[in-house]
Amino acid sequence: MLKWKEEYSIGVAVIDEQHMRLFEIGNQIYDLLENYLLPDKYDKIVTIILELKDYTIYHFKTEEDYMLKIKYPGYFKQKVAHDDFIKEIESIDLDAIDQDQDGHTRKLLNFIFDWVLDHILKSDFGIKEFIRITR
Q: pTM here?
């Protein structure tokens, strides 16, 4: 489980709120993985993956529009990272998940939590720093 901490904030309310929502989606995966009473999780896993994909596309557009608005010099690097994340989510093999639901769900959870935290704390903090020095 991953908990939002104020230290993850980049100081842009709409982006911070969307980051919190990404944490919530990741935690839905965690909760599903920890639910040992549910023998077949496939449909719920697929639903969460689709929600994650749709929400990250929405979030990345918001973040990219904001970066363009403030003329953030790291925009293109961020755009590539965002596109790579979406490609990774789109490449998830749903048949493989059906064969080993917990194993693949755990890999997905680790990927999401690692990527989101790393991206916020490294890439998105560049936005925070840029705002600080340009205001």
A: 0.91
